[in-house]
Amino acid sequence: MKKYNALAFILLGLILTNCQGTEDVFNINEKKLKTQYSLDESLSIEVLNPKSEKIDSIVYAINDKRVGSKKEGTLFSYELKNEKLGFGEVKTSVYYDGAVEKDSIQIEIVSNVQPKLLSYTIVNTYPHDTSAYTQGLEFYNGVLYEGTGQYGESTLRKTDYKTGKVDLKVDLEARYFGEGITFLNDKIYQLTWQENTAFVYDAKTLKKEKQFTYPQNLEGWGLTNDGKNLYMTDKSERIHILDPDTFKELDYINVYSLKTRIEAVNELEWVDGKIYGNVYQKDAIAVINPKTGAVEGILNMADLETKITKLPETDVLNGIAYNPATKTFFITGKNWDKMFEIRINP
């Protein structure tokens, strides 16, 4: 028994010696960093050099984007005002004695914008097809179009918003669950939920012209555009910015209301340089800065649910369309019997 304990002690010593031999020479001083920063703050990164090695240079990066370097010294300060909201990885690469040693740590960058609580006035109330599981809603040349969901029931339709009558309709194959829609360059883009497929139609005839496939890890939720690129939600806090010709991701933003990540942003509408987004299963619409992802305004829509007829199939608020001719918004929900025309108060 004593021999066994002695052997174990020797082996443990060898292990510890080997671990010490591979110990990092340089480390980010985690004690000097917070877990959350806002865009109006600066990040101060200290690199610990306990062995007083001669440093040739240190390169600093956030999410693989180089943000600065120093020839010598171990303290670096960087303003975060141009960074993305969300989780980011702070990285250091220390060059010394013909070698390089890297370290990284995760931080979260949050919004410093206090959202404004907005109010609205109901201008008109119109009938809405209760069979329409509304996923996308948008005006095009003064006409309202709607994309609906559910397997075996998904459609793309042209409607008379004053009567609720469907003037033209395209049925999706039963294997597709329709999601958000948007118009760009006289084309209609329509997402599907978990089928990783987007359809493109001629805006006048609703004839399908082509389709795109997007990555397997993405769900299709809401869709809008800025006149050049597409903006797509995927159930997380992320809004993907896509090339409309290839459906490849060009960039992204993360949606934050102060320190809170806003997940499940759903149906989208681009109005006067801002994104208006339903938050799934919440009676609210967030006004989002498309450059930063910061929520700048909130519309509490809970009152609308008191004005609809609750049927067995009635589901949550979803559907935002802006009519530039009247400067009003049209709001509805999944299988609602009404659609509301509202004006946001100054």
Q: What does the model show?
A:
The chain is mainly beta. The protein is 6% helix and 52% strand. Strand 26 (274-279) and strand 27 form a beta hairpin. Mean pLDDT is 91; it is low at 6-22.
Give the gist of this structure.
With 346 residues, the chain is mainly β. The chain has one helix at 2-21, and strands spanning 27-28, 36-38, 42-48, 57-62, 65-70, 75-79, 86-96, 99-110, 116-118, 120-127, 134-140, 143-148, 155-160, 165-171, 178-184, 187-192, 197-202, 208-213, 223-225, 230-233, 238-242, 249-254, 256-257, 260-261, 265-271, 274-279, 284-288, 295-300, 317-323, 328-333, 338-344.
Strand residues, percent: over 45%
The secondary structure category is mainly beta
Instruction: Give me the side-by-side strand order of the main sheet.
Output: 2-8-7-4-5
- Largest pleated sheet: 5 strands, mixed
- Give unreliable regions as ranges: 6-22
Distance from N terminus to C terminus (CA atoms, Å) equals 84 Å
Q: How many E strands?
A: 31
Range of helix content? under 10%
Any idea what the shape is?
Answer: elongated
Mean pLDDT: 91
Number of helices: 1
What Rg is obtained from the alpha carbons, in whole angstroms? 26 Å
Element layout with pairings:
Layout lengths: L1 H20 L5 E2 L7 E3 L3 E7 L8 E6 L2 E6 L4 E5 L6 E11 L2 E12 L5 E3 L1 E8 L6 E7 L2 E6 L6 E6 L4 E7 L6 E7 L2 E6 L4 E6 L5 E6 L9 E3 L4 E4 L4 E5 L6 E6 L1 E2 L2 E2 L3 E7 L2 E6 L4 E5 L6 E6 L16 E7 L4 E6 L4 E7 L2
